[in-house]
Amino acid sequence: MELYRSQSQATDYWNSFEDITRDVRMPKLSFSKIRFYEIKDFMPNMKRPRRIDIVLNRKRHKKDIECLMVKKINDETSPSQLSWQTEHKPHPTLEKLLRNKKYLAAFCSFLRSEFSEENIQFWLACEDFKSTASPDDIRWKAEEIYREFVEPTACREINVDHHIREKIKESLENPSRSCFDEAQRHVYLLMERDSCPRFLHSDAYLSLKHKSRSLWYI
């Protein structure tokens, strides 16, 4: 009984739908084939975009994408990541040279050829002095470094200011591991600004650098 009732309701709905759509004139083409300009009357509030607007929007979108791509390349790419710039990497700093035994030996040899070997020898003596633990060793090492590098009549006199010499001389009465720090820092800056740049362009450094690359390839 319920089935017949449902069929009767469906029939009534369909008849009502035919009555409503009987006076409506539908296009001969199926809805899927109707073009935009054929149904524009059904959508009076919708504005049709102009062709020039579509072209401009596409150009803006393309330009935005290109800008994003360029920005990404600039952000992600650095000189060290470019294959064509591998030969133009920055030179190592003086600190790195002093940590490498081979480069340190070559640097000492270079300074000897320039008659300024006392700078690196003083720097190395200070490094050894700062690692001294015994108070007795600190005293005699301090006096030895002063006589060899600091006093005006020293055989390997370094180029430091007069007030630095006087401060070191006064500290010898009760020497500490930091009594040569100011002089060592001064000598380091001299080597960094003067000797190191020349060494990095010398045949000794370039030859050693070439040998290191050859061993790396092997």
What report would you give on this structure?
This protein is mostly helical. The chain contains nine helices and no strands. The protein is elongated and about 120 Å long.
Percent in strands: under 5%
* Assembly classification: single chain
Mean pLDDT: 75
Instruction: Please give the share of residues in helix.
Output: 55-70%
Order of SSEs: HHHHHHHHH
Task: Throw out a few tags for this protein.
mainly alpha, elongated, 218 residues, 9 helices, single chain
Write the layout of secondary structure elements.
Layout: H1 2-21, H2 51-76, H3 94-99, H4 101-113, H5 117-130, H6 135-150, H7 162-171, H8 181-200, H9 203-217
Helix pairs in contact: 4-5, 5-6, 5-8
Summarize the structure.
By secondary structure, the protein is an all-alpha fold. The chain is built from nine helices and no strands. 64% of the residues lie in helices and 0% in strands.
